[in-house]
Amino acid sequence: MSLTCCCVFSASCSGCGPGYRSPLDAMKGPREEIVYLPCVYRNTDILKPDYLATVDVDPKSATYCQVIHRLPMPNLRDELHHTGWNACSSCFGDASKKRNRLILPSLVSSRVYVVDVGTNPRAPQIHKMVEPVDLYWKCNLANPHTSHCLGNGQIMISCLGDPSGNGKGGFILLDGETFEVVGNWEHPGDAVPFGYDFWYQPRHNVMISTEWGAPKALAGGFNPAHVMEGHYGSALHVWDWTTHRRLQTLDLGEEGGIPLEVRFLHDPDATEGYVGCALPSTVFRFYKTPKGDWAAEKVISVPSKKVEGWMLPEMPGLITDILISLDDRFLYFSNWLHGDVRQYDITDRRKPRLVGQVFLGGSIVSDGPVKVLEDPENQPQPPPRIIKGRRVYGGPQMLQLSLDGRRLYLTTSLFSSWDKQFYPDMVKEGSVMMQIDVNSVSGGLSLNKNFLVDFGKEPDGPVLAHELRYPGGDCTSDIWV
């Protein structure tokens, strides 16, 4: 996920802090050379700690497509998931800020690791560990997910639940120097039923948060009955960024079930963005209305396919990650179950236009156990994806776009218990990291068949690699103020 530092930018400053002056300036930044990925052993047969992998993605390097460093955590079964920064482009004008600490919340153990990536970016080391008891007792929260930093030096992390595993959407604050738990960001009694992701636009004094589900429901896998029983969310929550008060709840209904990743446009003046809703495989546009409140409308829908040989008679695409290019021209998302990545031209914000699509595994491959009986999009079942002799198990999941918008990286693991349920072969063989070449002018996606990072060949055995993060910031980590 993202992490942002809400610093006051001086127009007279030449730019001596972290990141870039603007999103368009960021597009001119250097090509990515290394990537950090959390790697997970929970729910595999290997009793080893999760670790942070450093992967070489520089085509000119002798270790291209290789894991060049592994930082194991000191505990078992953490479920590392998403990461954030202690400073980013919003602190571009502040010379006292440095992007040198990576924040790693553990989704299951509720620990928060702070990793030093400044001393040696190619060999990160643990700087500090926040124990779960601090989250439990000081905030009555657990299962931390997305991290952002605040202008007062604190770090804010969204949480999914309370210490008993019930759904509870609240936010914890860490001191930005000591990384000690300070307390809750929201006011007493203002926590929402579920939590997951959040993103904000300081110029409009707004933050929007999303909902996954109750940790005790989702931790063991996905049970469709839990949706009907109310253990999963379907709403966006609009917050006043200054007062920390909840202003609105936008119930997206069945067409917006399990709204996960939320992205404002990168333009700091923008009053709109998009959220991917996993279960119905829809994308909603949220926006500020002329009267000053917020609303949402469905703008993309991926139809379910009627199937046999699967757990349900209809298979959704399951949109699990979305991102927006730094010039706000293209939106990308992954259909983890159907197995495709899509690119949409969002120049017309209300009418996204599909301009690129590529299948990379998934649950409907032509030689698999699932047969598609009816597909409203009339697409043939794709062949299995094999790269450098390695079959891709699982489906495309986490995405990361290069600053210039020309390369899209992706991994295949969603969450270890769901991986085990839907893609047991991936848990056995390990996940992979792939790269798609992007036509950033008129649209179009094509797989780079010469790129593959095989996490099935790790020294301690096959592992599940999740989110991707560049050391210098990227389009899912940096917000401009």
From TrEMBL:
Name of one Pfam family that matches: SBP56
Catalysis: reaction(s): methanethiol + O2 + H2O = hydrogen sulfide + formaldehyde + H2O2 + H(+)
Keywords, alphabetical: Acetylation, Cytoplasm, Membrane, Nucleus, Oxidoreductase, Protein transport, Selenium, Transport
Metabolic or biological pathway: Organosulfur degradation
SUPFAM superfamilies cross-referenced by the UniProt entry: 3-carboxy-cis,cis-mucoante lactonizing enzyme
InterPro entries hit by this protein: Se-bd (IPR008826), WD40/YVTN_repeat-like_dom_sf (IPR015943)
Enzyme category, top tier: oxidoreductase
Record's subcellular location: Nucleus; Cytoplasm, Cytosol; Membrane
Lineage: superkingdom: Eukaryota
EC number: 1.8.3.4
Any one GO CC term of the record: nucleus
Membrane association type: Peripheral membrane protein
Gene Ontology molecular functions: methanethiol oxidase activity; selenium binding
GO BP terms: protein transport
Functional description taken from the UniProt entry: Catalyzes the oxidation of methanethiol, an organosulfur compound known to be produced in substantial amounts by gut bacteria. Selenium-binding protein which may be involved in the sensing of reactive xenobiotics in the cytoplasm. May be involved in intra-Golgi protein transport.
Family stated for the protein in its record: Belongs to the selenium-binding protein family.
Name of the protein in its database record: Methanethiol oxidase
